[in-house]
Write a structure and sequence with these properties.
By secondary structure, this protein is mostly helical. The chain contains 20 helices and two strands. It has one domain. α2 runs parallel beside α5 and α13 runs antiparallel to α14. The relative contact order is 0.10.
């Protein structure tokens, strides 16, 4: 009963709390902002309270009844190590970004709507993570799409709305293909069901796999459905942090892990094909990052590239080292990329531009931001002892163990490209002659938040054994089918 309450609370606190934001805003801006932060961190607390049970191997459905059995739904929510780990990671990064927003969003138009959408966004991610059936997963998937559409177009200018519409259309079309795949699964399963637990081991046909995978790569901005993500960099930096580090692009990789690694059985050629798409996307995005000059677009291409590594590890399907590496990558990339995007927000906020050709010498004016950016870049590159090293090493090692040597070689080469383009950014932005004497550091809430992300990237790397317990358990539960 306690488990059921915690799972429901993890989803309900941000979703129902989002609906209260407009009412609380009537009491004043400060009260509303504090309330939004309390709801965000309350979501983290509810998820964290499930960690002890997850570490003891909890793997069960909760809220199971026949109310929707006529639709092929008996199980509503599923809790296991993978769900709890991703819920805690996503909600924690989301909550820190809400804190960062205090200084960034302050005194802009539509602040109340911003906090409402962010909390609803976090709640939709929690719903996806704990969904025990395909229809609930799809429902929360689309709620997240609506939230991201509004947040990308936050400033309501024509160009912002155009970019938001593009993101929504691509992800919606992908989700529609995925829904068609779910319907085919329902019609071919015996008995007909949408319940994930009852579908474990179900053999997907190539068409089913293609349709479901289309939804995943559209949401995670994987080539060739990737173009919306760099364009979404026009959004406020806290929004881009949510999209890249905590929520939106992580939805696709979580869906891959839950459905392709945990639930369904795929054709024998799937690891090579899916892994090839992942590494092709990673390489192409890294090439784009090498020649781009817009700071946020560079980081967006970096996200596309790093998501390729997560897909690669999951694509190995039954290799526990690769699977554990990808699960851990969700945490490591979330911490590193959140810090980088929020640093970009500080730079744009303090210098007035995000074109790296117009920047230089900002370490003199923004020492904290420079240190955080450099440390976070090292983690994303995969330099020990930062968290990013362990995740990238495990994914590549698992790929080699699975006999996919060409994919492993591409992964190593792409990691080298990551080193080049991120150091290029650091050199252009922070070193050399000062080009913007008026530049200044961000607000206290902004600097504290980015510092926490950088410190966590280092601490998680130094204390890697602690998160690795639940990560390995999640991998073992995925292959147990």
């Amino acid at each position: 009963m306690a488990t059921t309450g915690l799972v429901v609370a993890t989803i309900a606190v941000p979703i129902l709390g989002a609906l209260t934001i407009p009412l609380v805003a009537l009491l004043g801006r400060k009260v509303r902002t504090v309330w939004a932060n309390l709801l965000a961190y309350g979501t983290v607390a509810c998820g964290a309270l499930l960690l002890p049970q997850a570490l003891h191997g909890l793997q069960q459905t909760v809220v199971s009844n026949g109310l929707l059995s006529f639709m092929g739904i008996n199980d509503w929510f599923l809790v296991d190590a993978l769900a709890v780990f991703v819920a805690v990671v996503a909600s924690s990064i989301g909550a820190l970004i809400v804190s960062y927003s205090i200084g960034y969003i302050a005194h802009t138009d539509n602040e109340t709507e911003y906090y409402t959408m962010v909390l609803l966004f976090i709640g939709s991610m929690m719903g996806i993570v704990f969904s025990a059936n395909l229809l609930f997963l799809y429902m929360f998937w689309e709620i997240a799409a609506i939230c991201s559409w509004r947040l990308i177009g936050y400033y309501r200018k024509p160009e912002f709305v155009k970019r938001a519409d593009k993101a929504f259309l691509i992800t919606f079309l992908g989700a529609s293909a995925m829904l068609l795949g779910f319907i085919l699964v329902f019609t071919h399963s015996q008995p007909a069901t949408f319940d994930i637990a009852r579908l474990r081991g179900f053999q997907l046909t190539p068409l089913m796999m293609f349709l479901i995978f289309a939804g995943m790569i559209a949401k995670s901005a994987t080539f060739p459905l990737h173009t919306w993500l760099p364009d979404a960099g026009i959004a406020p930096s806290p929004v881009t942090g949510l999209l890249h580090a905590a929520l939106l692009v992580k939805i696709g990789v979580y869906g891959f892990a839950r459905l392709f690694c945990y639930t369904f059985t795929l054709p024998g050629y799937a690891p090579a094909v899916l892994g090839g798409i992942a590494m092709g996307s990673a390489f192409i995005a890294a090439c784009a990052a090498l020649v781009e000059n817009d700071l946020k677009r560079i980081l967006a291409y970096s996200t596309i590239s790093q998501i390729g590594y997560i897909f690669l590890g999951f694509a190995m399907l039954n290799n526990q080292v690769a699977l554990a590496g990808s699960v851990f990558y969700i945490l490591a990339h979330g911490l590193g990329k959140a810090a980088l995007f929020l640093c970009a927000g500080v730079i744009e906020h303090g210098a007035g531009t995000k074109d790296i050709r117009e920047l230089g010498g900002l370490m003199k004016k923004m020492p904290v931001t420079a240190i955080v950016f450099f440390a976070s870049a090292l983690s994303v590159i995969g330099i020990p002892p930062f968290a990013g090293f362990y995740s990238k090493f495990m994914v590549i090692a698992g790929t080699i163990q699975s006999g996919q040597y060409v994919l492993a070689a591409v992964a190593i080469f792409t990691a080298f490209m990551t080193l080049i383009y991120l150091l290029r950014v650091f050199n252009k932005v922070f070193l050399g002659d000062l080009t913007h004497p008026q530049a200044h550091e961000g607000t206290r809430s902004m600097l504290v938040t980015i510092s926490i992300f950088a410190i966590l990237s280092l601490v998680v790397g130094l204390l890697v054994a602690f998160p690795m317990g639940v990560v390995k358990l999640a991998a073992a539960q995925m292959v147990a089918r």
